[in-house]
Amino acid sequence: MSEALETSQVLSEVLEDLRRHLLWQEEDGGRFLQMDARLAAEARAMRLPRPPAAVRPVPSAPASPAPVVERPAPARVPPPAPVAAPLVLPNVSAQARPSTGPLPGGERPTLDEIRRELGDCRRCKLCTGRKNIVFGSGNPRAELVFVGEGPGESEDLQGVPFVGAAGQLLTKMIEAMGYRRDDIYICNVVKCRPPSNRNPEPDEVSACEPFLRAQLKAIQPKAIVALGKFAAQTLLRDSTPITRLRGTWREYEGIQLMPTFHPAYLLRQPAEKRKAWEDLQQVMKFFGKPTGQRG
């Protein structure tokens, strides 16, 4: 009886060693059961019969985990490049009225974005007879912007606003104010030449006006000089004749606006140059420039 107990005790010790070995394998991250040579030799030397079920201890070690297949980490994919949001031009519905608040509608665009949005414009019938779109020229951060009516023949050929006879007069007016053309920005209500320099028609103004308003939003000048009735009436939404609009400060979206005569009109009516100069002197005073006589 003592021999049986001794045998059972030895067997229990072997099984306990085996259980600890299994636990060690699990804690050490082992993937398979590995019995060391010493335990295997002892078990063979003893040649012990299997103990009865009543006295045979049952190890409580958990089953070995399934082998884990190591997979390479997925390659990092760079995030997609941000897609530029479409340019939203200011609302210019017929019922809209100028306000004294900030310019409307989303973030401030750039002139390059507006020009790309304009593209090879086919939004009105003026596209059929033009040679070049005349977008605008000058300082994109100008404090002063001149807005005219539309391109003439010389402008259509060169793609630059106010380069013909009326443009030469405008250049003299700008220089008399103490500026260079590169200091200010010049653009027109419509960007394509009306046939035979006729007045732009309402549908043509309506098609182009959002781009003019977007240009002014991009530049955010301190003052605008509206040259002639189309520029003044379009920006102010006021059908008052230019002879009554001129010479009095108005506001466009919180920006000071001075209506005055168009240089082409001054070429036909030289006597009106004095009134136009008086209007420009008010703009000079606004910017703190001396208002001496023209050279």
From TrEMBL:
Annotated segments matching region Disordered: 53-73
GO biological process: DNA repair
Boundaries of every Uracil-DNA glycosylase-like domain copy: 135-281
Reactions catalysed, as given in the entry: Hydrolyzes single-stranded DNA or mismatched double-stranded DNA and polynucleotides, releasing free uracil
NCBIfam families: UDG_fam4
Keywords in alphabetical order: 4Fe-4S, DNA damage, DNA repair, Hydrolase, Iron, Iron-sulfur, Metal-binding
Domain of life: Bacteria
Annotated Pfam families: UDG (PF03167)
InterPro entries with a match to the protein in the record: UDG_Type-4/5, Ura-DNA_glyco_family4, Uracil-DNA_glycosylase-like, Uracil-DNA_glycosylase-like_sf
Family listed: Belongs to the uracil-DNA glycosylase (UDG) superfamily. Type 4 (UDGa) family.
EC number(s) on file: 3.2.2.27
GO molecular function terms listed in the Swiss-Prot or TrEMBL record: 4 iron, 4 sulfur cluster binding; metal ion binding; uracil DNA N-glycosylase activity
Biased composition (Pro residues): 53-65
Protein name: Type-4 uracil-DNA glycosylase
